[in-house]
């Protein structure tokens, strides 16, 4: 079957559908298969995806990884329902202790046993080479918007009082070289809370850190310059009760007040001299039905998202509008296959679907 529509119109229409539909449409005709495989279309699809971010759900059930996504509501309405669609099956050997996503990639790690970066849309994955260093290791995935490269930062905390060493790896496209860890010259003591997932905003990684001597600060790492820095907390912040998030392109901090239905939102600003200052942006009094849930982050339209700590049925998220102080509950279908399995769930905002395959599976060490 051939289309009677102009090719440019066909390309524009197809660039706006979901990645799951793209797989089906490849079978329509040889023309469509050619269009969908062309680099120009893949780049256009990514551009359109950036304008319509999705919610990403990762479930760990019986040591297996299940990944779903759904549209991310822009103007959520009470009692509305969305359907989450599953991505491809993933190997059981994938590490699942720590899971984060950034833009279009998902990053998995488990202690010393492995680090995997994968694209859930294409099923493509990279097993990163092992880091030859002793001590406690924790890694973060980031993106340099200038060079448009993904990088992985691996921070090592020594157990024996020797200086900490940190390494970085640039994800290379197919045929452009091996994936190798490089030692960062700007190595300094920056011990990370093991439970902190960190967040990358405009090429800067932010994470909670503990400085020897009893000081809590926010560590930051510039993926372009490959330099570390630190930001002091406001005196009214409680470091162990904070979650870092993206507040409309700036670093935001969510502070939950124990025993109260209150949340405080802080935003990192700069004064006229370029110094960091904290602005107490909001004090949110949450509805009792929302308060026990886990803070996820903020959408680009300004709603705070809360998720259950574990997968429950029916599954739902709360979208809290900070302007109107109202909460909207959205139900999600599609997780029925996990109904009878104990599962933990991680909800991520602003996931971008990408149908481009740029990497090959690798297990080389360096």
**H/E element sequence:** HHHHEEEEEEEEEEEEEEEEEEEEEEEEEE
Strand proportion, as a percent range, falls in: 35-45%
Order the strands across the largest sheet as they lie in space: 3-25-24-23-22
Structural class: mainly beta
Determine the N-to-C terminus distance: 50 Å
Could you list the spans in which at least 5 consecutive residues all have pLDDT below 50?
A: 362-366
Overall geometric form = globular
Major β-sheet profile:
5 strands, mixed
Radius of gyration: 21 Å
Q: Tally of extended strands? A: 26
Percent helix, as a range, is: under 10%
Average pLDDT confidence is 81
Count of alpha and pi helical runs: 4
Overview of this protein structure:
With 366 residues, the protein is mainly beta. It is 10% helix and 43% strand. It has helices spanning 7-14, 19-25, 30-37, 39-50, and strands at residues 54-61, 64-71, 81-83, 85-86, 98-102, 105-110, 114-118, 125-127, 136-144, 149-157, 165-170, 182-183, 191-192, 199-201, 204-211, 215-222, 227-232, 242-247, 250-256, 262-270, 276-285, 294-298, 303-307, 315-321, 326-333, 343-351. Strands 3-25-24-23-22 form a five-stranded mixed beta sheet, with no helix packed on it. The longest helix is centred in the N-terminal third of the chain and has 12 residues, at 39-50.
């Amino acid at each position: 079957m051939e289309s009677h529509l102009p090719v440019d119109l066909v390309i524009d229409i197809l660039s706006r559908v979901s990645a799951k539909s793209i797989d089906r449409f490849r079978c329509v005709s040889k023309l469509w298969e050619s269009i969908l495989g062309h680099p120009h279309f893949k780049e256009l699809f990514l551009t359109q995806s950036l304008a319509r971010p999705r919610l990403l759900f990762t479930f760990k059930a019986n040591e297996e990884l299940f990944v779903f996504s759904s549209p991310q509501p822009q103007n959520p309405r009470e009692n509305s329902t969305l359907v989450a669609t599953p991505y491809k099956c993933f190997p059981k050997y994938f590490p699942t202790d720590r899971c984060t996503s950034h833009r279009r990639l998902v990053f998995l790690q488990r202690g010393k046993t492995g680090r995997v970066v994968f694209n859930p849309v294409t099923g493509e994955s990279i097993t990163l080479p092992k880091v030859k260093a002793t001590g406690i290791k924790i890694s973060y995935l980031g993106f340099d918007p200038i060079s448009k490269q993904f990088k992985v930062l691996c921070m090592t905390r020594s157990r024996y009082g020797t200086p900490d060493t940190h390494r970085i790896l640039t994800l290379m496209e197919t045929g452009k070289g091996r994936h190798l860890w490089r030692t960062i010259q700007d190595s300094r003591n920056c011990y990370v809370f093991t439970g902190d997932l960190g967040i990358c905003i405009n090429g800067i990684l932010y994470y909670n850190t503990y400085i020897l001597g009893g000081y809590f600060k926010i560590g930051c790492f510039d993926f372009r310059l490959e330099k570390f820095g630190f930001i002091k907390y406001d005196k009214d912040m409680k470091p162990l009760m904070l979650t870092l998030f993206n507040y409309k392109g700036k670093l935001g901090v969510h502070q939950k007040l124990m025993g109260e239905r209150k949340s405080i939102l802080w935003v990192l600003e700069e004064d006229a001299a370029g110094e960091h200052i904290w602005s107490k942006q909001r004090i949110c009094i949450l509805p009792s039905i929302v308060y026990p849930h886990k803070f996820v982050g903020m959408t680009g339209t300004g709603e705070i998202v809360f998720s259950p700590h574990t997968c429950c049925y029916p599954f739902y998220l709360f979208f809290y509008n900070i302007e109107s102080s109202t909460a909207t509950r959205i139900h999600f279908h599609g997780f029925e296959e996990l109904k009878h399995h104990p599962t933990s769930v991680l909800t991520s905002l602003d996931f971008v679907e990408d149908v481009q395959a740029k990497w090959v599976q690798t297990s080389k060490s360096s």
